[in-house]
Amino acid sequence: MHLNHNRRAVGMRNRRRTCILLVLTVLFVGAALGGARVRISGTVRDSSGRSLAHAYVKAVPVVQESGAGRVGSSGNPWVAADSSGAFTLSLPPGQFRIKGKDEMDGYPDPSFWLGLDPEARFPEIMVGNEDIDSVEVVVGIQGGILSGHIVDARTNSPIANAKIRIQDAQNSYAFVEVFTNSEGHFRYTVPNKPILIFVTAAGYKEFQGDAEQTLSHGEQRNMEVELEYN
Q1: DSSP per residue over 160-207, as a string?
Q2: Owning domain of residue 162
């Protein structure tokens, strides 16, 4: 009995020692891989070659799928470029697509179908052990900024958390949904294409815009919507 007890104790100590070594190995490898990052620099421009003063960039990891093309996983945050459109990123080894946007000046977020633009050029880069310079990111066609105020039709008081659906007039699957703040206001950068506007809020009838809207390059358009009770 005593011998068996000692054997079990030795076995448990060996297993604990093995587990500790495995954990230390994983931590060491993870730290080594996480520390291997290189500098990626470039410029964000519009289609005419003009650099953008309020641009942001994002490195989207590219995953190769057999027979299904490429897909991206948006694991990195947006990083601001400087006033001349120049940016610097720090990335680990791998394949990335560098995306850009400038919502302040009418170039929408390309992360959503509504903002996809075939005119945009978002380069794919393969990151290894050396820095990469002169990456050129070209945003698509300039759209506009749509803002609005959603109020109660009877009291004229603002409606907080109302949902605004901004939809591609030619593709009902391409849309974004934004919500009003506590004062009933919303603001969103939309592409230069026909869109439809729908507004809903709890306890109110749905509002649908009478016709398609298209914001011209750099246009800022404001809309006032009065919702009626159900």
Answers
A1: TT-EEEEEETTEEEEEEEEE--TTSEEEEEE-SS-EEEEEE-TTBPPE
A2: 144-227
